[in-house]
Design brief:
Layout lengths: L2 E5 L5 H17 L4 E8 L2 E9 L12 E2 L3 H15 L23 H5 L46 H15 L3 H13 L16 E3 L6 E3 L15 E2 L1 H13 L7 H7 L13 E2 L4 E5 L2 E10 L2 E8 L4 E7 L6 H16 L15 H4 L3 E5 L2 E7 L5 E5 L7 E5 L5 E3 L8 E6 L5 E6 L2 E4 L28
Antiparallel strand pairs: 1-3, 2-3, 2-12, 4-7, 5-6, 8-9, 9-10, 10-11, 11-12, 13-14, 13-20, 14-15, 15-16, 16-17, 17-18, 18-19, 19-20
Helix pairs in contact: 1-8, 2-4, 2-5
């Protein structure tokens, strides 16, 4: 066994030792012929290592592995670019743009989030191990019953759904989805080692016998029309670049706001402790952190990329063994090891560069009925609503050109916050999706729906307060 390309720049010795131990344990217990891992922090690859048999002389972060369904996240990025350019809308039916034998009634958002109700796999034989020439057209992807559920009703993972999204990109751009990917995503992000077919140095794919330590080679076929579901090969170095993009955005590819939209679970609960699937991204709640990324499997390979935007850290693990699901835990542990042993240093506090008086006067205490809240002013005129004490709904709000604010998360996501003013221009109350916030508990003045008792608050003896 060899330990290859141990890059320890920027981390403390104890952290490096813990990372190496976790990767080594994952490779050994997972019985993987090889396993490579890397950590991205604040946009940079700060640690990488490899365990097992790797190509002679190759650095672990430069060895290609097949990344399976992480390919789907790349395809989702291409679709979101089309949306941001105004070439499609997420609520549009796929059939508006693409002549397809199935899935035409589903929206593009449903296909991205695996809620289109399509079958999980392409028709046989096993598409991941057979040549794509067996399915030359979209008509050849689906069997007799392509629609398994009503679109939008529930989450049902669909590989053919992403084959349709790849075809959608080709239809609108007029060229292959991979050529579009290279020009619009891979090149701007410097991902030169992410390719459709393997390029040396690369790992070979293996199956490991369940009851004996022996290997069986796995085929690495070109899956053709199904390629957008899982064809790509990549390296930990390239995937750390991609993780940095997924964390902070890159205006050459997608904005941070669009990536935040992709990280929001579609049609599912956003409550703490629950997980979901956004637009091409898996969303996982783990020990108080919201992790986003994707897992990928293909015969002979398994991959995991997971990021924590709040920490600015990502973990990437690749292995060349079929069904080595240990990579999920290893990648998450690499991330949390760095986050816990070397927590993010906050940026220095500094005052806001510009403040409008009409925004500043909204800050301070507000009451929804008798429940106390605070409203803080943030950079760019954004607002942050926080409950005081236990319970209550918090949210962040984006300023709009018409003088209102739009909720960005949780219960108030998409809802409108309006500062209602009197005829004289003074702030009367806040209206948040019809919920009224006043400066005093159940403030007088006619703002509270249903009115406020004219006799006011009472003591235990029933007398009015003064």
């Amino acid at each position: 066994m060899i330990d290859v390309s141990y890059n320890d720049a920027g981390l403390l010795p104890a952290t490096r030792r813990a990372l190496l131990h976790r990767l080594a344990t994952g490779q050994s217990e997972g019985r993987a012929p090889s396993m490579v891992g890397a950590v991205m922090r604040e946009g940079n690859l700060v640690w990488s290592s490899g365990r097992g048999e790797l190509p002679a002389g190759a650095r672990s972060e430069d060895v290609q592995y097949r990344i399976g369904s992480i390919t789907k996240t790349f395809v989702a990025v291409l679709v979101m670019r089309l949306r941001d350019e105004g070439l499609l809308k997420l609520d549009d039916r796929l059939g508006t743009y693409l002549d397809t034998p199935a899935g035409g009634d589903a929206t593009i958002a449903q296909l991205l989030s695996h809620t289109a109700g399509l079958t999980a796999e392409a028709r046989g034989p096993w598409w991941e191990r057979t040549d794509g020439e067996l399915r030359p057209g979209l008509d050849d992807i689906f069997g007799d019953r392509p629609q398994r559920h009503t679109p939008g009703r529930l989450h049902h993972y669909s590989n053919p759904g992403y084959a349709l999204l790849g075809a959608l990109v080709e239809r609108i751009r007029g060229e292959s989805w991979y050529d579009v990917l290279r020009r619009e995503v891979l090149a701007p992000l410097g991902m030169e080692r992410t390719t459709l077919a393997p390029a040396a140095p690369h790992a070979d794919g293996w199956a490991v016998h369940p009851w004996a330590d022996v290997l069986l080679p796995e085929p690495a076929v070109d899956t053709g029309r199904m390629a957008p579901a899982g064809q790509l090969w990549s390296t930990t170095a390239d995937l750390c670049r991609f993780a940095a993009f997924l964390t902070d955005g890159d205006e050459r590819v997608l904005s941070a706001a669009t990536l935040a939209e992709m990280r929001t679970p579609e049609g599912g609960s956003q409550a703490p402790g629950q997980s979901g699937y956004g637009l091409g991204l898996q969303v996982i709640q783990l020990d108080g952190r919201t992790l986003v990324g994707h897992m990928g499997t293909m015969p002979g390979f398994v991959a995991m990329l997971v990021t924590s935007p709040q920490d600015g850290i990502a973990g990437v693990v690749l292995a060349n063994r079929t069904s080595c699901f240990e990579v999920w835990g290893v990648a998450a542990d690499l991330l949390t090891t760095v986050a816990e042993l070397e927590p993010r240093i906050p940026a220095p506090w500094s005052p806001l560069s510009e403040v409008k008086d009409e925004h500043l006067e909204l800050t301070g205490s507000w009451y929804w009925g008798a429940a106390p809240f605070t409203l803080r002013l943030c950079a760019g005129g954004a607002l942050e609503l926080s409950p005081l004490g236990s319970g209550g709904r918090a949210s962040h709000f984006r300023p709009e050109e018409d003088g209102t604010w739009t909720g960005l998360n949780d219960y108030y996501a998409g809802e409108t916050l309006t500062a209602v003013r009197t005829a004289e221009g003074a702030v009367s109350h806040l209206d948040l999706g019809t919920f009224v916030f006043t400066r005093e508990p159940y403030g007088a003045g006619g703002a509270v729906p249903g009115g406020v008792d004219a006799d006011g608050w009472r003591t235990a003896e029933g007398t009015r307060t003064r």
